[in-house]
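Aggregate trends can hide what the representation actually does to any particular protein. For completeness, the protein is quoted in full, as a sequence line and a line of structure tokens.
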Amino acid sequence: MFKEFKEFIAKGNVMDMAVGIILGAAFTTIVKSLVGDVLMPIIGVFTSGVDFADLFIPLDGNSYDSLEAAKEAGAAVVSYGVFINAMINFLIVAFVVFILVKNVNKLKRKEEEAPSIPAKPSEDIVLLSEIRDALVKPTAAKKSTAKKKAIKKPATKKKK
């Protein structure tokens, strides 16, 4: 069982996936910081200081000054502002992934279009090709001489 697990882990796809997950986790942290620390304050300026993270609906019917105050009071809340922040995070990540995939596909197309230099054949292939050519040449020579003989022979007329 350990051997099978070792073979599974050693496959290239698993390692690629692990690297992707690690980079994705690091990228998520960067995007959260970009949204929370850079974009949301700018959006807040344009929306007269509204902070989406503090938008919520208390389900107990009371009013609270902030989301933290409602949570401290133990009230059930629908914090739709946090959802708006998550949607902005998602849109940014989706856009960046789109740009990344678009550029990778462009690079792949360029590689496919580039003329490739044919690899030198192995020694076995070269040797077999020489043998084939040596066998083909005498046969072709025999056929050509047979044709020449047929052409050179004048047609004889039979006397009656």
